[in-house]
Amino acid sequence: MVLRSPNSKCTLVYMIVKLLLSSHQKNDRLQQVEMYIDTIRNLSATLGMESSMIITKVHPTLNELCGISKNISDTILAKLNSTVETLKEDKQKRTEKLYHLGKALTNLWNLMDTSYGDRRQFFHVTNLLRKSSSEVSDPGCLAQNIIQEVSQ
């Protein structure tokens, strides 16, 4: 027979509650990490960038191919947030740049009375004139090579 003090049940309940809270916090952090990673993947695709490289730069354990459990520290969450914000800013800048280039192309075509067939090559750029930055999400539509192609 094991002798227990009256407080041992309280201590056990306290430890179980603490363990459950810890487990809940871990699940919340893992969900946050997954949300950031999904956002990075989507933004990277739109920007024509390799998402796995970006994610691995934040921390190698975040790469699914790594096979190691993910680091979900406050520092990693802050780095993921910063990466997402940087990609969003880059998306906004590229959208604005292509918007201005598309507007200039349209004005030039109108002055030159350019045929629809000749304009079709840059439809993916002029189509952006009808979209807000948040609506621009097609893979590769804001890639650097697209911007360079239109700029020339």
Describe what is shown at a glance.
The chain is mainly α and 152 residues long.
Secondary structure layout plus pairing:
Blueprint: H1 7-47, H2 51-58, H3 74-112, H4 116-119, H5 123-126, H6 144-151
Polypeptide structure, described:
GO terms for molecular function: microtubule binding. Pfam families: MAP65_ASE1. Belongs to the MAP65/ASE1 family. It is found in: Cytoplasm, Cytoskeleton. One of its GO terms (biological process) is microtubule cytoskeleton organization. There is one protein chain. This protein is an all-alpha fold and 152 residues long. It has one domain (7-151). Helices cover 68% and strands 0% of the residues. It has six helices and no strands. α1 runs antiparallel to α2 and α3 packs parallel to α6. The protein is rod-shaped and about 90 Å long. It starts with 6 loop residues before the first helix and ends with a helix.
